[in-house]
Specification:
By secondary structure, the protein is of the alpha+beta class. The chain is built from eight helices and 17 strands. Strand 14, helix 5 and strand 15 form a beta-alpha-beta unit.
Length: 390
């Protein structure tokens, strides 16, 4: 088991927009163009205070899984609810806590993403971590957000390899700064468009009313059929149709697997606007080609870290608080479109980063998933862009 934070400070001369903390290439490094202005790290951690941590489990021939942890306001501030919204593009999956998000327009605490059969362990691990690190918060109740995608092609998903202690370790490992991508954390055993998929992130900056806000996206990408793949508007599925062992051995229908997306911003939003952000995830995914398989659980969470004092923690229900009215600042609906655009752009790039920052993986029963052939993609995209301009 390896636990590690999002990543160390970038070394001198490194460009976090081109490579991950471990030196793996990101999408921009192979010439894939994207619109919009990315933040400093081009990651969800560009949202101030937000932290990401991983535990990666690669053991023997059959264990290829892990845990991803996201703290909206950092490990030291888990109890302050954030305005939030949830969208279910396709319900063949699970994200716990979604009913409360729909009811209250808020959630509190960290988010955990893991494999399908460990989603309950993720839920229990959040409770255990909160009780250990912030026991005052567990005097009331918790509605943890734990989400999943299926890694059973490469991973022994029934082996209970994700433990409560692994979840706690991922939550403890979380940090700000650049974020590792590819086969790490909950994304370790995941596949995307029948290439090696997993964890990916990106961000965009939006200026409004004299302030600059960040919209960040994180995806656990485990979806899509090979023939659907589109990068930079270039259909690549047919050109990259060779070397597809999943098509020969995978028992589930093509495109199965799921995708979890988390969108965060420091822009002040109403809960309804957070739901609108979550719905725009579908458009970012669609730019990469997917039509959304019936066998893919596509569940999306969006939240705003602004208005921190506006929502009372659940523990106050037991101890009382003075009668008072709460107030929210929010971006007017009439000016929300640049933020929607940022969501779509960040989600698209996050998916492509998950594909690019990867290598071949062999796992359970000798199943193999090839990495996206980066050199071929570079050539195909460059040729298509050149042809457009001629």
């Amino acid at each position: 088991m390896s636990g590690h934070p999002a990543g160390p400070a970038v070394r001198a001369g490194d460009d976090p927009h081109l490579s991950t903390p471990s030196g793996k290439p990101r999408a921009r490094a192979i010439g894939i163009p994207f619109a919009g202005r990315p933040g400093r790290w081009n990651a969800i951690t560009d949202v101030p205070g937000l932290e990401v941590g991983y535990v990666t489990l690669i053991e023997g021939t059959d264990v290829r899984t892990g845990v991803t942890a996201i703290h909206p306001r950092g490990k030291e501030r888990p109890g302050s609810p954030a305005a939030a919204g949830f969208h279910n593009q396709n319900g063949n999956g699970e994200m716990t806590g979604a009913a409360w998000i729909e009811e209250s327009g808020t959630f509190a605490g960290p988010v955990v993403i893991t494999n399908t059969h460990a989603v309950g362990v993720g839920h229990a691990g959040i409770v255990a971590w909160t009780h250990q690190r912030h026991p005052g918060l567990t005097e009331a109740w918790l509605m943890p957000v734990s989400a999943e995608t299926w890694d059973g092609y490469l991973n022994d998903i029934n082996g209970h390899h994700v433990s409560e202690s692994a979840v706690v370790a991922a939550l403890d490992a979380a940090a700000g700064g650049p974020v590792e991508e590819g086969s790490v954390g909950g994304g370790t055993g995941m596949n995307c468009y029948a290439f090696k998929g997993g964890s990916g992130t990106a961000s965009r900056l939006v200026s409004y009313a004299g302030s600059e806000y960040t919209v960040g996206a994180f995806v656990q990408a485990n979806f899509g059929d090979r023939h659907e793949l589109v990068l930079a508007g270039v259909p690549l599925g047919q050109a990259l149709a060779d070397d597809n062992p999943m098509a020969e051995h995978f028992s589930a229908p093509p495109g199965a697997g799921s995708v979890i997306a988390v969108v965060a911003t420091d822009a002040p939003l109403l809960p309804g606007q957070c739901r609108a952000f979550a719905r725009r995830v579908t458009l970012g995914l669609a730019r990469t080609g997917t039509s959304g398989s019936h066998f893919s659980g596509d569940l999306f969470l969006a939240f705003s870290t602004a208005n921190e004092s506006a929502f009372a923690p659940s523990v106050t229900a037991f101890y009382g608080s003075p009668d008072q009215l709460a107030r929210l600042e929010f971006v007017p609906w009439g000016h929300i479109d640049p933020f929607f655009e940022a969501v779509v752009q960040a989600v698209e790039e996050a998916v492509v980063n998950a594909l690019v920052a990867n290598e071949d993986m062999t796992g359970r029963n000798g199943h193999r998933t090839p990495a996206l052939p980066r050199d071929r993609v570079r050539e195909l995209v460059a040729a298509a862009i050149s042809a457009r301009g001629s």
